[in-house]
Amino acid sequence: MKQEGKVSAGGDLLAKIIEEKKLSLCVECGKCVASCPMAEFYDRFSFLFSARGIVKKALLGLDVLRDPNIWFCLKCDVCAQLCPAGVKYAEFVEDIRQLAIREGVTENSVVCPRCGRYYLPLPTLERLKEILAGKGLADEFIELCPQCRQDDMAGKLAVHTVLAKSSVPRHHPA
Ligand code: SF4
Ligand code: SF4
């Protein structure tokens, strides 16, 4: 797809991201769609949220920042590694998500309730919860961002260690 993208939303910043991530080099080969794990992760997989679909919409100047389909990608980077044109799709999608958040489009971004930072797209979180529920597994741990989860776990381990030490009977020499 060797055409210039006319950018109608996101202004210069979006245009810069499109250029930096080499979207205009896309040749529409479809490798990114064929290799994408979203097809297995989500119940339904659509061209609308595939890398090729989003690249096309961005190059056509559609408002990708307000497109809920940009929040499905798992950012595994497989597509970028296989792309014959060098399109850096995972980096592109991360950059436009950050830009969308800065522009106030936050309904599809999940914020950690402890530190307040964005850490997961809503469709990914919802699907993870569905998968865990289907296996009868608890899902509270994914409510926190990875850093807070780690801190939480470290805190619990520290308390556990202190309790374990305090419950060990002391040996008093006769
Ligand atoms: S693999 Fe690259 S060139 Fe092929 S459709 Fe996807 S983004 Fe375009
Ligand atoms: S980075 Fe996103 S679009 Fe690319 S293969 Fe992974 S999940 Fe699919």
Short summary:
46% of the residues lie in helices and 4% in strands.
Sheet having the most strands: 2 strands, antiparallel
Q: What is the H/E string?
A: HHHHHHEEHH
Spatial gap, N to C terminus: 86 Å
CATH topology annotation of the largest domain: Fumarate Reductase Iron-sulfur Protein, Chain B, domain 2
Global structural class: mainly alpha
Strand order of the largest sheet: 1-2
The proportion of residues in beta strands is under 5%
Q: Could you say which small molecules are bound to this protein?
A: iron/sulfur cluster
Q: What is the count of structural domains? A: 2
Please tally the β strands and state the result.
Answer: 2
- Morphology: elongated
Stretches with pLDDT under 50, minimum 5 residues: 1-7
Q: How does this structure look, described?
A:
The chain is mainly alpha-helical and 174 residues long. The chain folds into two domains: 11-107, Fumarate Reductase Iron-sulfur Protein, Chain B, domain 2 (Orthogonal Bundle), CATH 1.10.1060; 118-166, no CATH class. The chain contains eight helices and two strands; from the N terminus they run H-H-H-H-H-H-E-E-H-H. The chain has helices at 11-20, 31-34, 38-41, 51-59, 78-82, 89-102, 122-134, 146-166; strands at 109-111, 118-121. Strands 1-2 form a two-stranded antiparallel ribbon. A hairpin with a 6-residue loop joins strand 1 (109-111) and strand 2 (118-121). Helix 1 (11-20) runs antiparallel to helix 6. It is elongated, with a radius of gyration of 22 Å. The N and C termini lie far apart (86 Å). Mean pLDDT is 89; it is low at 1-7.
